[in-house]
Design a protein that fits this description.
Layout: H1 2-8, H2 12-31, H3 41-52, H4 56-64, H5 80-95, H6 97-103, H7 107-140, H8 162-194, H9 199-209, H10 212-224, H11 231-253, E1 256-263, E2 266-268, E3 271-273, E4 277-283, H12 290-306, H13 313-318, H14 324-345, H15 348-357, E5 360-361, H16 369-404, H17 413-435
Antiparallel strand pairs: 1-4, 1-5, 2-3
Helix pairs in contact: 2-8, 2-9, 4-12, 5-6, 5-7, 6-7, 7-8, 8-9, 9-17, 11-16, 11-17, 12-14, 14-16, 15-16
Length: 460
């Protein structure tokens, strides 16, 4: 391992790519601390902390933005509009024939779809920016005498009437946040092209990882204050469980079912080529982190809405993350979205047709319809196991937090994203090393490190 790390700095191109990636990620993190014009950052932090203490939709978006939303940063929307537009485009490509044709046209078609995704990201950024602007403005206009009046700069600073100030503040906020999201998209694409790893994934990765040290510090303070069940022993047990969970995530994310495929002999002129035996991989967790994101967003929406609509306090209490109703619905929705997203993005009929056109077949299975049925049956079984795995990983922090009476930051969806992105990045680094006759991270005789098998959800 030490030799592999040393070899990284011996390859000039790899050293330049890693440095380029780190510089762009540092620029992204610096932008987190630039506030939107017209907002008092200190007052806003206090207001947003009260709203995010129970998680909810705001807490989910704030985690993916690396804390930028709670500070009304110019990067407050983060990269989530681009991720949402990518998911929407993937779903539309299944039901819209013109988009489906573009998807099959190779590099040119994918480039066109990427352009549509960028346009969709800008539209979503504008819509979300309007919501953020009105929310920020409402913090400073509350009639509650205990409200934080300084969240938004008073109207006298603009010299306008209150209604005109709202329009001007909303316009400035939407322009700023949309430009921030566009800049983050540009950073991600530059990292993917000239750096190492997937740029969009690394931006989300960096936003989650920076929250781990403050969370660890808060956990240590809880141990010192004897606020955690079991004291130091409970904290050490928690650390051991987290290491085991990380190992389990690495094992499952790399897991796959290999379906053997045999290709018939080919005759070219007077030459006969022997048949080739290979396999078709099916990922255990084919849907990636999409099911937990969808399920969390769907369950967070009623709880977030209850904070604005009077008379929904009971709904808000029932859908708190430490309630069994929330956990049960969360597990059910993860299983549902795992099957739903996998069925939309993976077509067994197309796979069976491609195998048949290339002269291949699965031993013991007739080509055509029977092959498609076999692949779909195997995929359904794998999806069920993958859905249970996702549900267990996402519910485990709630269970452990309830036992130890402590709130865990690093778990669930965040853990899946961090481990998956780390695997992909390490795999790319190892490929660079091996291509230049250097040893990989596992050594000359060890197994090669595999990232997640590429799927439509792996970029998240």
């Amino acid at each position: 391992m030490f030799n592999a790390i040393t070899n990284i700095f011996r390859v000039a191109e790899l050293r330049a790519r890693i440095g380029y990636t780190l510089v762009l990620l540092a620029i992204y993190r610096l932008g987190i601390f630039i506030s939107t014009p017209g907002v008092d950052r200190v007052a806003l932090n206090a207001a947003m902390e009260a709203r995010m203490k129970d998680g909810g939709l705001l807490g989910l978006f704030n985690m993916f933005s690396g804390g930028a939303l709670s500070q009304a940063s110019i990067f407050a929307l983060g990269i989530m509009p681009y991720v949402s537009a990518s998911i929407i485009m993937q779903l539309l490509a299944v039901v819209v024939p013109s988009l489906e044709r573009l998807q099959k046209e190779g590099a040119a078609g994918r480039q066109k779809l990427n352009q549509y995704t960028r346009y969709g990201s800008i539209v979503l950024s504008i819509v979300q920016g309007v919501g953020v602007a009105r929310t920020l403005y409402s913090f400073g206009r509350s009639t509650d005498p205990n409200a934080l009046e300084k969240v938004v700069v008073p109207e006298s600073m603009y010299g306008l009437t209150p209604s005109s100030t709202l329009i001007w503040f909303s316009f400035m906020t939407v322009i700023t946040l949309t430009a921030g999201t566009a800049f983050i998209m540009w950073l991600g694409e530059r990292i993917t092209e000239n750096g190492i790893g997937n740029g969009i994934s690394l931006i989300i990765f960096s936003g989650i990882v920076v929250g781990i040290p403050p969370s660890a510090q808060q956990l240590w303070r809880s141990v010192e204050a004897d606020a955690i069940n079991g004291g130091m022993g409970g904290a050490l047990g928690l650390l051991g469980v987290m290491l085991l969970v990380v190992g389990a995530v690495v094992f499952v994310e790399r897991g796959m079912r290999r379906i053997p495929v045999q290709y018939a002999k080919r005759v070219s002129g007077r030459q006969m080529f022997a048949g080739q035996a290979t396999y078709f991989p099916l990922k255990v967790n084919a849907s990636g982190v999409i099911p937990p994101i969808f399920a969390g967003a769907l369950l967070s929406f009623p709880a977030t809405l209850a904070t604005w609509v009077p008379g929904m306090a009971g709904v808000q209490r029932a859908l708190q993350s430490d309630q069994w109703i929330y956990s049960g619905l969360f597990v059910a929705l993860i299983i549902f979205f795992a099957y739903f997203y996998t069925s939309l993005t993976f077509r067994a009929d197309d796979v069976a047709d491609n195998i048949k056109k290339q002269g291949g077949y699965i031993p013991g299975i007739r080509p055509g319809r029977q092959t498609a049925d076999f692949i779909e049956r195997v995929l359904n079984r794998l999806t069920f196991g993958g859905a249970l795995y996702l549900a267990a990983i996402c519910v485990l922090p709630t269970v452990i937090g309830g036992i130890l009476k402590v709130q865990l930051y690093f778990g669930g969806t965040a853990l899946l994203i961090v481990v998956g992105v780390a695997l992909d990045t390490v795999q790319q680094i190892e490929q660079h090393l091996i291509s230049r006759n250097y040893e990989g991270f596992a050594g000359p005789r060890g197994p090669r490190i595999r990232g997640r098998i590429r799927s439509t959800a792996s970029a998240v």
